[in-house]
Amino acid sequence: MKKIAFAAAVFAFAAAVHAAPASEASVRELMETTGARANMAVSLQNLAKTLPQILRMRAETMARNNPKLSEEQRKAELATVERRMPAITIALQKDLNDPKLVDELYNQVVPLYTRHFTQDEVKALTAFYRSPAGKKSLEVMPVLMGESAQAAQKLVQERAKRIVEQTK
To answer: pTM of the predicted model, to two decimals?
Structure first.
């Protein structure tokens, strides 16, 4: 019995090792089926909206926390940040909304799929996302992710509030 189990394990391992890697064409078909290009564009647009604020906060934090700066120098740094932010924001939005960036990202993601999925897996995923359940999951998943993020934020805020109260 042990010999049969061992032989089955060896066979399964050999089959997995020799599984055909996903072709670029099949990955592109999967990505088109899932609307990956449109999702990438939306993600980059969202990044274009939030990145300027993130950069501003980082620059302000660096200026405020730099012990080498005098108060006058700190104020000058903060003023420089404020003066430069409109131009930075415009440039970031232009660059991140460039359709060529979506193409570049898309082309860089395809090899990632070929590295992590076999041809059979990509075909199965494509078939799933073309099915009614797959189509519904593509529609519902963004909503679920947003609702899940809100639920997580609420839970974390409640716990953080409790921890703050407990540590007074």
So the answer is: 0.68
